[in-house]
Amino acid sequence: MSQPLVSSPPSKTGFLRQALPEWRALAILGGPILVAQLAQMANSVIDTIMAGHASAEDLAGVGIGSSLWVPLVLFSMGVLSAMQPMISGYKGARQPRRIMPVTWQGIYISQAAALGMILLVINAGPLLALFQLEPDTRAITEGYLKALAWGLPAIMLLGALRGLTDGLGHTRVIMLFSLLATLINLPLNYIFIYGKLGVPAFGGVGCGWATTLSHWLALIGLLLYLNSSKIYRRYHLLVWRTPPQWAVMRQVLRLGLPIGGALFVEVSMFSVIALFLAPLGATVVAGHQVVLNVVSLMFMVPLSLGMALTLRVSYLLGAGHPETARALARSSMLLALGVAALYAPALLFGRNLIAQLYTNDPAVIEVALTLMVFAAAFQVADVLQVAAIHALRGYRDTRIPMFIMLLSFWGICLPLGYLLTFTELLGPALGAPGFWIALTTGLALASVLLGWRLWLVTRATGRAAAGTATKH
């Protein structure tokens, strides 16, 4: 299961000769990350499909419940993702004794976050009352959340342990256990939702129990692997158990909170846009959701490459190769453009086929076809910003990028989207395309600002390294 990060010495060769080996390293690291991300997304798809076959109320209950707990988990996972560049950097610097203290602080943070989320989701009743749900739907939502609450400690501990395995460059470990959780979730959903093997039919509430059990089983499997594998013998969790170290914990939080904040800003923006579009009718919302689902699926590739980029850049910096790290960080923007060059034409020329895969409703297809034209332009800005922000995380630069995301999404995208969609202040009201134009505008601003920030950070790091070399 090992894919160790291998040190690359600085190179004086041409751009492509220097970039291609690093791009291959990104592919080796990022491939398993992509599979793990798709496996985690598959859980949501499975829950949606199987709950929908139980009843419309079960589908609504699971959907509403997911919209409450998923953003909380994503924010917390963003905080924990600070572990990866820290551990990868320590591995590159050959400081293995600093790795397990970071791992244990991540474990403590993950369980504190799980406790906080449990208290929120099991007491979600007053919040659900604001939505004025049908009694049956509200009961299913509350039951689903209470069942899922039991799994939050396992979900969060898996996130903390991912910091260790991914940080060491062993990205296939989480890939395999994510696939395991998905494979377990499918039959458990069948048993708990529909009432099989003597188990009562829980409907949508059964999704919560299936998610809980599948993640606990995956966690037990991962713990058994980590404590028996020869690769992880030197990182044995129990042997290297570390009490809370507030200085190390502050380092994780200082780096991770802005990452979690930036992720929450982006996720919450898409949720708010869906709410804004609701008055335009179910057809418009359905068409928007089709396109959003397509781009979310496509986003997994640049996201996985970005996560690999964070690992690789932090490792190279820790290993004392800032020039290689800078070349990789900057060339990743070109690699991102290559991904966009594939995505944009696929959306433009394949949009009719894509839309028909999701629905047979001609009105929904018509909306989706229009929005996919804007989504094609959206791809270019999106892949550039994700490459830049993940490269910056490799440099442990997270605060300024968080403010850039906040400005781009909440300061530009949402206000501009509202004006273009519903008002005539900037011209005729555009409806749903207005928000996709605003999304592209906000992401374009983010990609420019993050790209400029990356240029400044890599230049400053290079000068610092050159100054140190001159002194020696």
Number of strands: 0
The general outline is globular
Describe the largest sheet.
Answer: none
The tally of domains stands at: 2
First CA to last CA: what distance?
40 Å
Which regions are unreliable across 5 or more consecutive residues at pLDDT < 50?
A: none
Please tell me how large the radius of gyration is: 23 Å
So what's the oligomer here? single chain
Helix/strand structural class: mainly alpha
Strand portion: under 5%
Q: Total number of helical segments?
A: 15
Fraction of residues in helices? Answer: over 70%
Average pLDDT reading = 85
Order of helices and strands: HHHHHHHHHHHHHHH
List the helices and strands and how they pair.
Blueprint: H1 15-54, H2 56-80, H3 83-92, H4 99-121, H5 125-130, H6 135-149, H7 152-167, H8 171-194, H9 204-226, H10 246-277, H11 282-318, H12 322-358, H13 362-394, H14 399-422, H15 432-471
Please characterize this protein's 3D structure.
With 472 residues, the chain is mainly alpha-helical. The protein folds into 2 domains: 31-244, no CATH class; 255-472, no CATH class. Helices cover 82% and strands 0% of the residues. Helix 2 packs antiparallel against helix 10, helix 3 packs parallel to helix 7 and helix 7 (152-167) runs parallel beside helix 9 (204-226). The chain is globular, with a radius of gyration of 23 Å. It starts with 14 loop residues before the first helix and ends with a helix. 50% of the residues are buried. The mean pLDDT is 85.
